[in-house]
Amino acid sequence: MSETCCPTRKGALVGAKDSMLFYADGGDVRQILRSAPAIDRDATQALVERLHPGRRVVEIGDGTLLDHAYPPEGYLYAACFPGLTVICTQDLTVDDRPSRLGGTFRAEARGRTLYLHTMLSTVDWFAYAIWDADGTLRRALSVDPDSGILENTGTPLPFEADYWAGRRPVEIDEDDPDPSYPLPFHPLEMAEDALRALFGFIYEGYVEDDDPDLDEIVLAGYRLAHH
C-alpha cells in the first residue's frame, strides 16, 4: 500500500487534539467511515437530548470529523450513522481517567462496543478506553509527562507493545537545553497509533491512500444551553 507523507493534514486540528466517543454495532469502523455515511439527523438530535437532560439543545452549523473533534466547552458535535455513532465533546473524563466516563454516556452503548479517545497536545496527554458490548471495561489508559501513568487498566492492545517495550523512544533534539523526557515514549505518538488501530485514520502523520476522508464525515453541531 502506498503512502503519502503528510506531517500535518491540510485543515487538521492545530496541535492534534480530540475528545471523542465511538459507538460501534460490531462492524469495521474504518469501513463505515470510508463510505462517508449519511447522517440521521433526527436520531442525532434525539441522542444529544438524551445525553443532556435538563439542558436546552440548540442546533448550530454542521462540522466534520476533521475539524470538530475537540469542540469548545458547551458545544458538541455528533452523528448517528448506520452501524456507528460518533460524539465529540470535552465532557468525557473525570480527573483525566477514561474509566470514569459518565454513566449516561456508557448507558447509551446499549449492547454496542464503546470507544473513548482523547488527546491534548498542549500537555502531551493521551487517554483511551474500550467497553465491550456487555458494558465490561476492557482497557483504559491515561498518560501524560507531568503525572506519568494516570490510569492503566486491562490488557494492553497490540498497538501499544512497541511503546512499552522501549522501541518507540522520544527523539530529543541534541540542542535542547533539557535533553530528557519524563516518559519512555511520547503519548501523542501512541495516540495517533491508537486512532489508526481503532478507527483506521489519524490526524497527524502518514495518511494512507485508503484512509477515510475526515472532511467528508459530517457531524451535526449543537450548543448546550441552560433553560
Brief descriptors of the model:
227 residues; alpha+beta; two-stranded antiparallel sheet; 5 helices; globular; disordered N terminus
Give a verbal description of the structure.
This protein has 227 residues and is α+β, with helices and mostly antiparallel strands. It has one domain. Helices cover 17% and strands 34% of the residues. The chain has 5 helices and 11 strands. The protein has helices spanning 29-34, 41-51, 103-107, 161-164, 187-199, and strands spanning 3-6, 17-24, 55-64, 75-81, 84-88, 113-120, 125-131, 137-144, 148-154, 205-208, 218-226. Strand 4 and strand 5 form a beta hairpin. The longest helix has 13 residues, at 187-199. Residues 1-14 have low confidence and may be disordered. Pfam families: DUF6928.
Brief summary:
The chain is α+β, with helices and mostly antiparallel strands and 227 residues long. The protein has helices at 29-34, 41-51, 103-107, 161-164, 187-199; strands at residues 3-6, 17-24, 55-64, 75-81, 84-88, 113-120, 125-131, 137-144, 148-154, 205-208, 218-226. It has one domain (3-226).
Question: Helix and strand layout, with pairings?
Answer:
Layout: E1 3-6, E2 17-24, H1 29-34, H2 41-51, E3 55-64, E4 75-81, E5 84-88, H3 103-107, E6 113-120, E7 125-131, E8 137-144, E9 148-154, H4 161-164, H5 187-199, E10 205-208, E11 218-226
Antiparallel strand pairs: 1-10, 2-5, 2-6, 3-11, 4-5, 4-11, 6-7, 7-8, 8-9
